[in-house]
Protein 1
Amino acid sequence: MQRISAIFPLGLLLVACGDVPGESAGTDAGGDTDTASSSTAGEAAAITYWRDVKAILDAKCVGCHSPGNLAPFSLASYADASAVASALPASLMAGTMPPWPPDPACGTYLHDRSLDDDARQMLLDWVELGAPEGDPADAPPAPQAPEPLEFDIDLELPEPYTPTIAPDEYRCFLLPWPEEEESFVTALSVTPGERQIVHHVIAFAIPPEQAEAYRALDDADPDPGYLCYGGPSGGKINDGRVPWLGAWVPGGAPGDMPEGTGIKVQPGSLVAVQMHYHTYPGAGPDQSRIQIRTAASVDRVAVMMPFTNPAWVQGSEPMLIPAGEAGVVHSFAADVSNYLPLLFPDGGLQAGDPFVVHAAALHMHTRGVRGSLSLTGGQSTCLLDIPRWDFNWQGSYQLTAPVTVRPGDQLRIECEWDNTADNQPVENGVQQQPKDILWGEGTGDEMCLGIVYVTGT
């Protein structure tokens, strides 16, 4: 395994219920076998949809697997679930559904979608029994629906846009910030207009003093928006202190910030929406939408802090992933407490102050296989570990117990890739050949990026 480090100062057997010796459940006295799904009279099925399975599906699956939602089929009713029951075991056994990438050995997070062993075995046993329906009178109480997020700002890209640069195009669109007083972003949702081509979305808050410089970039590009590889200005303006408002990646879901926190936005700001398009022939135009909830005040001002090795980004220490190699690992650690004034320019935190990590996320591309964020040095704490990376299921994970970071602690990121022939993407129906890969903005390049949501103590 190649390892490169850097330092930067910046179930169970099925139980036949009520078996009679010499007979098996689901078999009548004449020896004819009934379908398990009709076993609602006489011998009851050991596990049924209404009594046992529906509650699991409602809690862990129906949020995506319901009519009109993003999953390819519904599990919202008995008819829906029984129709696809035979397809469920493969995903359940592999642990890929429901999708919950974090390793529970690292930590616990809010809104956990994962199945425990008992629930997984219950579903497997139900399928093995033939997906019995049971008695609707056994239905569990209706699940309590989460309170819907209420947004007070609704922004949309100014016009539909079809990317023309292949294979990847980064294009930014400027949207006016409508609030006339200082406010704080406490929730953000991104709805991609054309999911087939949207690789990721990042919303930045351009401060008022830089607004004209960004408008000039927009005016200079004849197409809607302007090209912006690398950041909201495409490297044409010093944007190192432009705060993130939020982001969307495949698998991401709308959500609110940790309670009592929010990201500050000044009146007169602009929202720069960076769209990373992975261009496909024949794809339709995109007009993505961003919804934002604001508050007039919060208990603690927050920032989203991107974290990586700048030497990888700049190329002075290449993040090389050689063609044909598996198990390529790069890692990086740094004490970031001395750079807090860059993140909190209004003086909220000074160099060397402790700060609190409330949520963590990782970002790699398609050759990634594993990634982790942790604290080392003064303490040894796992923040996020994704042992089986899946580009299509990324997200930000809110810690059930926020972690305080003190001077001397180092934030550490580690990523692993597989660049062998079997792990290459398919483009236009053709699997690509391995090539040397470095840090880059394109889908065919790679990244090792951590994002942590932080506040003061």
Protein 2
Amino acid sequence: SSRQHPKALQMTVFGMSDTLGQFGIDWSEILKKVSPDQIAVFSGAAIGNMDHFGFGGMMQSRMKGSRSSSKNLPFGLVEMSADFINAYILGNVGRTGHVVGACATFLFNLQLGKESIENGSARVVIVGGAEAPITPEIIDGFFAISALSDDKSMLELQSQLNEPSNKPNQRKACRPFGDNIGMVMGESAQFVILMDEDLALELGAKIYASVQAVASHADGFKSSISGPGVGNYITLAKCVAEASQQLGSKSLKNETYVHAHGTGTPANRTSESHILDEIAKVFGIKSWPVTAIKSYLGHSMAVAAGDQLTCVLGTWNKGIIPRIHSITETAEDVFDDNLNFLTKDKVEDPNFYKGAFLNAKGFGGNNASALILGPDFTFSQIKKRYTKKALKDYERKLENTRKSVLEYNENASKGAYNTIYKFNHEVLEGMHDLEITKEKIKLKGYKKSINLKS
């Protein structure tokens, strides 16, 4: 049946299943310790599910002389990724939703997840996104606003740079912060699991990093709705100020780096580099490492910052910040007095960098930045808040988690993925499957009740 679903929803099912495999703890263990209403899911797309199984099929039906499917409209909705996770993977009855903000969408959802845990409305949050925008109509739309790297322009650029120009070099189609001509569309699904400290330790969850700050701001008055503005200066400055307070000025200057939005367009290379350079100057950073993962993956729209976050976690695992592989130097109009745009992989001890910044600049003034703190620094702070016995118990449980993750990865590397898709599984009905009193709601199949007392 998944063949009748939009591609992004197929990616959601696979991506979320993979996330749970990487989690290494059976989801039922969470349900034993957390009330059903304290689990939240925030995920979706920015443009929508536009292939022929979603909105695309609905829009095309009259022109083709056919009828729209009953699934086209609902399957096209931007929040359907969260809906599928709730309905077919987790059986979640907790909070759900999706905050759309163009290319900053993933960070908007990350901010919502962080705030939900901090205000106590959730203890576990799935944050993610899935977008598959490579369709003829969407390509036409981006081509119309001169945003894409096309073959003709690529050949002209390759000739100007004295590169072989007998055919387009698709591996260098996206050139963030170099001499460039446009972006490349990408497709992606990324998911992370957030939870409060107490629960993470109680479960023995592997802690990959912590979300210290997420800021999102608009641009104010604009001329062109797609043009850059002041909002991204505000978001990044707030996150860097937070890093200065948490890590200290010395660590900020020497042990942090940036995953730039880095779309590969001429407008982005000047506007974003100026933002990064100005913020670096204000905080006394002299040679801030900057990379841009879109040189490898293209622009996955809503999920773009999720691609960045996953790459950040990889750096804390392998000790490598991947270079901007498609350039050998920056363009002349790039601001880089205080920046080090990486044209070579930067290799350090995996725990060398204490923090990483994610940056997103979206159409319409949707700007967001995030400060992610590494596992080493994160756990050093956790140790200050828990007893030796609690930490020893955590390490014992963590060992079992590591074994489960290792086993899953070994199987996955052989193509044996444990894809979860629970269609028509333990469906709850209001007439028979819940008990409501003034104090609580008890759901069939859930150990914990939903508390109605304030």
